[in-house]
Amino acid sequence: MKKLVFLFLTVAFFYAPTCFAQSKSSVEIKSFLLKGEVRDGQTNLPISKVNVEILGGQYTTTNGQGRFVVSAKIGDELVIKSDDFVTVYHTVKKNDFITIKVENAKTATAPIPSKRSLETGQGGFRVYLDSAKFYLKKDAQKSIEYVTKAMEPKSGKTITKKENALALETLGDINFFWALPDLAVENYKQSIENGAGTDVTIKLAKAFSQNKNYQESLSTFQNLLNATLSANQMAEVFEGLGDTYKAIGEGVKSVFNYQKALDIAKDNKIIPKITNLNSKIGETYAQSGALNEAEEYFDNSLKLAKKENKQRAVSEKNKVADFYNQNREYEKEIQLREETLKELNSMQTGTTVEDEALTPQRQNYKIANAFVAQEKYKQAIPYLEKSIAEADKKEDLIVQKDAVRKLSEIYRDIGEFDKATESYQRYVEVVDELYVKKEQEISQAARFSKEITEKQNRIASLENDRKLKESRYKLAFENQELVQTNNRIQRWVIISLAVIVLLLIFAAYAQYKNVKQQKLANNLLALKSLRSQMNPHFIFNALNSVNSFIAVNDERTANKYLTDFSLLMRSVLENSEEDFIPLQKEIELLELYVKLEHFRFKDKFDYKISIDESIALNEFVIPPMLLQPYVENAVWHGLRYKDQRGFLEINFQQINSETIKISIIDDGIGRSKSKEFKTENQKKQKSKGMGNTEKRIAILNEMYKDKVDVNVENVFENNEGTRVELILKKD
């Protein structure tokens, strides 16, 4: 008996992630009036005239009290936008009054150029560049906008090569920080062409390495060693060489260069670099398997980091704790992470830690993993519960998912199957929520990439304009014979602009076609996703039937049921990758499924399947597993709760050569009573199949012009019995 229970849980754990990953409620999502307000994150004052938009829906603005009302649905994405602050994207989760706090640019301390400096061009460039640097790590778009303004020509003044080099260097710094190394490489190259110095060349070498152009990075760093460098620059170059050699797996060369950089840093008392280099040497030795040497350098980095600040100290402790984990020194790891937790808690009120690993939820999770590695399961459980609570409070779905899954596995391993199942259900819910969040992040990343590219193109255009104007100024001092050449250049510019206009028109047309193709691709992806949910959903419900046989000690019946079920599961999985299957195959699957359900509830109902002989079954195709959820609904929510023996009738009737009607009729308790009964017993059964089926039919009808029509109605006047009629078209 225990072996069968264990087998059931093992199979359920194997199939359930796919089954529940994207399960949704079948209840129709209705619109409602969402109310909220927008406030300054620093002063908490309301902000008026803010653009508030539901993506693909309504648009409004905030009133004088910073409040707004807009029609929305659960899951909609709310966009709060203004030139005065960073755009905020908020997902509507429930119909509650919401408060959006924004980072208001007007209250920040970014430099603002005076009107006179902008009119004369004196000081405007430097102020705009300082503003760009101010927003560099906060808002990439705003930072790039200031670089653009700095590079725009002012009245009666042209930008110099030196200024252009500084602007392009700043643009490279922005792209490097926001992980766009390919753009950063081009920016730094252009900056060097305009006369930038050694520091920019060092940045270029680092950008090459981040962009995985390792040979170019090594070549650039090695060429720098032949130049005249300051002590700090020399340390930077050797550190950069060490980073690049580490990236390509050459540990010996990496340590050699790190050691040179460390010697220079010690000689010149560059304290932060000494700490970082000790840490990097420790990491490289650890990767190479030289554990004693690695531990020595990590000890140095820990001691040095404590002397700097708490943020640097906790970062280093986390890194060394990871090293102890890799070497199975779990007690040392746990001790370091406990210290890290205490310091993080003391820092929460005043300090922001950028490293996502340095959060209480992540540290608690890693401590729990260390206990699990030692098979100290009960000691791990409190840390996992702390991790889950912290992650839920901070909306860290990734850590919450991992911690809940780990907790479920622990309960399973120690034999507490009820808690294991409960934790696993929580895991499924978190995975579902994480999937939605990832979709939104992908959408936001696409918007971010598009906006950055547009601004980058604007700057490239300004650079081209600057070069063109520089050429014109030079030509003005040339002989009058070059006037004709000047005219030809102007005509070329006009032609180029005309070509650009044509290209823009072509790009707009291409974008229109791409949107249509993307819509089709999204529909196909949605169908595949919903189809992939149906099979695990059915398997999970069938395994619940096996579990019920096991629960009453009917092992022989469970074995017989499993034998028939395996035949059905094999047929279902064989058709799982097909968009459509012949109607004949769907009927065979349905007959086997009804047989299994009748096998379990044989005292509850009889059934009959009638097929019109005139139907050419192989000429009609149907999405796999389309009918099964309706039959399942009839059995589980209608016939199962009936006091007397019920009857299920499934008819396939030909209307004409192109259309057939499929009827699924039961004399069960009816939909109204089923809902009341389900409310009282909602913990016993949660049907997920109907929602997916309705979505599949909606997408199919959109793609194939009303291929399937569905009508559900009561059979008897007392609202008992249910009739489902599906009209299936051939084409």
Secondary structure layout:
Elements: H1 2-20, E1 32-40, E2 51-54, E3 59-61, E4 67-72, E5 77-82, E6 85-91, E7 98-102, H2 115-120, H3 124-134, H4 140-151, H5 161-177, H6 181-193, H7 198-210, H8 214-224, H9 231-247, H10 251-267, H11 271-288, H12 291-308, H13 310-326, H14 330-347, H15 360-373, H16 377-394, H17 397-413, H18 417-476, H19 483-551, H20 555-574, E8 581-582, H21 583-600, E9 605-611, E10 621-622, H22 628-639, E11 646-656, E12 659-666, H23 671-680, H24 689-704, E13 708-714, E14 722-729
Parallel strand pairs: 1-7, 9-11
Antiparallel strand pairs: 1-4, 2-3, 2-5, 5-6, 8-10, 11-12, 12-14, 13-14
Helix pairs in contact: 1-18, 1-19, 3-4, 3-5, 4-5, 4-18, 5-6, 6-7, 7-8, 7-9, 8-9, 9-10, 9-11, 10-11, 11-12, 12-13, 13-14, 14-15, 15-16, 15-17, 16-17, 17-18, 19-20, 19-24, 20-21, 21-22
Structure commentary:
With 731 residues, the chain is an alpha+beta fold. Among the domains are: 32-107, Carboxypeptidase-like, regulatory domain (Immunoglobulin-like, Sandwich), CATH 2.60.40.1120; 522-729, Histidine kinase-like ATPase, C-terminal domain (Heat Shock Protein 90, 2-Layer Sandwich), CATH 3.30.565. Helices cover 63% and strands 12% of the residues. The chain contains 24 helices and 14 strands. It has helices at 2-20, 115-120, 124-134, 140-151, 161-177, 181-193, 198-210, 214-224, 231-247, 251-267, 271-288, 291-308, 310-326, 330-347, 360-373, 377-394, 397-413, 417-476, 483-551, 555-574, 583-600, 628-639, 671-680, 689-704; strands at 32-40, 51-54, 59-61, 67-72, 77-82, 85-91, 98-102, 581-582, 605-611, 621-622, 646-656, 659-666, 708-714, 722-729. Strands 9-11-12-14-13 form a five-stranded mixed beta sheet. A four-stranded antiparallel beta sheet has the order 3-2-5-6, with no helix packed on it. A three-stranded mixed beta sheet has the order 4-1-7, with no helix packed on it. A hairpin with a 7-residue loop joins strand 13 (708-714) and strand 14. It is globular. The two termini are 51 Å apart. The relative contact order is 0.06.
